[in-house]
Amino acid sequence: MPRAAFVTIGTYVPDRVVTNAELTRYMDTSDEWIVQRTGIQERHWVEPGLGTSEMAFRASKRALDQAGWKAEDLDAIVFATLSTDHMFPGDGCFLNAKLGIPGVPALDIRNQCSGFLYGLSVVDAWIRAGVYRKVLLVGSETHSTGLDVSTRGRDVTVIFGDGAAAALLEATDDPDRGVLAVELHADGRHAKDLWADAPGSIHSPRITKEMVESEAIFPHMEGQKVFKHAIVRMPEVVRSVLAKAGLQTSDIKVLVPHQANLRIAETVQRSLGLRDDQVFNNIQKYGNTTAASIPLALSEAIPARGVKRGDLVALAAFGAGFTWGAALARW
After folding, report:
1. Residues 6+ apart with CB under 8 A from 131
2. How many CB atoms lie within 10 A of CB 86?
3. Is 314 a residue whose pLDDT tops 90?
4. E strands, the chain, where?
5. Which residue, 99, 102, 169, 224, has most beta carbons within 10 Å?
6. % of the chain surpassing 90 pLDDT
7. Separation of CA 54 from chain center
8. Within 13 Å, how many C-alpha atoms sit on residue 164's CB side?
9. Cα gap 53→98, rounded to integer Å
């Protein structure tokens, strides 16, 4: 049975860099306050006219160029995002058009911070089943246009950044390559602990002036609840997926956790007993880019940690829903 193997990852982040110092012009905060609580020093935000599908397109083109593939080589697209260009259709179709591959299926996934892992599980299942052989898996997010950039929204706004990363995966029969296991979970009892209420079809009309003027259209987060669940669920699911593969934490070359908060990642590292060289974080430069965060970090972790063919890479995520998961792959 073939497995899904990573070929390469292309990335794209907007040119505009927003430092913590810049945020102090819009809200009551400081560089020290942000770094102490999140570890973030800067993030990238889009300029007007640049959105989620375009960033995904640019990242995808880079990935295709790096691999020496043509867009026509792709059998399918899986697109993970919570920040689509429009209410519908999903950005997978817009990316399909930009790549010039009409007829190639495009699946959109709305699993927020766990989106890339949910997408990876789908790609792996397709490839194992022999349905497709070459798949583009994208995580792309435009958060900045939906944030309350004021003191009122400070706790959430300082966290998020914009960016995209596109992974190319192919079928392989090489026993030393490919995805070994993916484990996914969700607990909808906590759905409103990290969410945006509006616009939404449960409201009639879906958007009102009052919603725009209030906090309803902005993300809301119960930060302490998210933190407490994340530091339990992430190491728990990493241990579980390792056990399924008959491996141990000592076998991990590098763990790439979702880049939600550096303090969460550090706590997860301690819980798993991993050395500094076994974990990679880049939230300091990009903030939380949700579905894009794992592939964006993975693209930098491979050269930074000297990952070679056959090395074990672990991925872990936790986020809105609540949803969480982990994956193991031989690079």
Report:
1. none
2. 11
3. yes
4. 3-12, 17-19, 42-44, 76-80, 106-109, 134-141, 163-172, 178-186, 194-195, 220-221, 254-257, 312-319, 323-330
5. 169
6. 99
7. 17
8. 33
9. 9
Structure-token pair, residue 283:
């939230």
Query: Phi, psi (5° rounding) for residue 312?
Result: -90, 120
Structural domains of the chain, with CATH:
3-172 (3.40.47.10), 178-330 (3.40.47.10)
State the CB neighbour count (10 A cutoff) for residue 210: 9
- Region of 329 (left: φ > 0; alpha: ψ -120 to 50; beta: rest) is beta
Structure tokens at 103: 């007829």
Among the listed residues 162, 111, 176, 27, the one whose alpha carbon sits nearest the alpha carbon of residue 318: 111
User: In this structure, are strands 3-12 and 163-172 parallel, antiparallel, or unpaired?
Assistant: antiparallel
> Would the CA dihedral through 126, 128, 129, 132 be positive or negative?
positive
Count the neighbouring beta carbons within 10 Å of the beta carbon of residue 147: 17
pTM over 0.85: yes
Phi-psi region of 299 (alpha: psi -120 to 50; beta: other; left: phi over 0): alpha
Q: What is the DSSP letter of 182?
A: E
Closest CA to 256 of 302, 291, 322, 323: 302
Going by the DSSP 8-state scheme, the letter that residue 46 receives in this structure is P
CB atoms within 10 A of CB 201: 7
Residue with tokens 């997010």, as numbered in its chain: 141
pLDDT of 245-291, one tens digit each?
999 999 999 999 999 999 999 999 999 999 999 999 999 999 999 99
Q: Rounded CA gap, 321 and 112, in Å?
A: 8
Cα distance between residue 327 and residue 317, in whole Å: 9
Amino acid 283 reads I
Look at residue 158 and tell me whether its pLDDT is greater than 90: yes
Residue 130 contacts residue 6 (beta carbons within 8 Å): no
Give the model's pLDDT for residue 1: 87
Report yes or no: 102 and 312 within 8 Å, Cβ to Cβ: no
Question: Across 210-261, where does the E strand assignment appear?
Answer: 220-221, 254-257
Residues classed as catalytic: 113, 258, 288
